[in-house]
Amino acid sequence: MDAFVMLDTPPPSNSAFDEDNLQQRLFYMLGGVARGQESVSLLLLRVVDANGGIFERLGCCRQSTPIEGLQDKLLADIEEDVKRTLPCLHDVDGLHTIRII
Q1: Which long-range contacts (CB under 8 A, 24 or more apart) does 28-37 make?
Q2: Can you tell me the distance from the alpha carbon of 88 to that of 93, in angstroms, rounded to the nearest whole number?
Q3: 44-86 residue pLDDT tens
Q4: Contact criterion met (CB below 8 Å) for 45 and 53
Q5: pTM (2 decimals)?
Q6: CA nearest to 68, candidates 18, 10, 14, 1
């Protein structure tokens, strides 16, 4: 499986990514799927203000997906109890509005 990650700016420290991951501040948002090429594009995000639904864009990723079913997992809907815990500005009928800075 090949991946290409491009960060907008370097992390402030060697441990910043691990710290954000432990604090559950890292997210991704699907940017596109190329089924014929078996690849997905993702936006890499970090929560800045969970109550305000404000995220910072960390960068982007393009992932080739030869592993059977990976695209389906990335595109799968998440459970309602998980949706209710996601940081967002508005949640209307399971559709989340966020701000990306």
Answers
A1: 28/61, 30/74, 30/75, 31/60, 33/71, 33/74, 33/75, 35/71, 37/64
A2: 13
A3: 999 999 889 999 999 999 887 655 666 566 656 677 777 777 8
A4: no
A5: 0.76
A6: 1
**Both tokens assigned to 7:** 């960060």
- Residue 53 CA to residue 47 CA, distance in Å, equals 8
Give residue limits of the domains in the chain. Answer: 3-100
Write out the two tokens for 50: 């969970």
Give residues with Cβ within 8 angstroms of 50, minimum separation 6: 87
Chain-centre distance of CA 23, in angstroms?
15
Q: Which long-range contacts (CB under 8 A, 24 or more apart) does 89-96 make?
A: 89/52, 89/53, 89/54, 90/53, 96/53
Angle at the Cα of 68 from the Cα atoms of 66 and 73, rounded to 5 degrees: 105
Cα angle, residue 14 at apex, residues 73 and 9 outer, rounded to 5°: 70
Closest to 58 in 3D by CA, of 85, 86, 27: 27
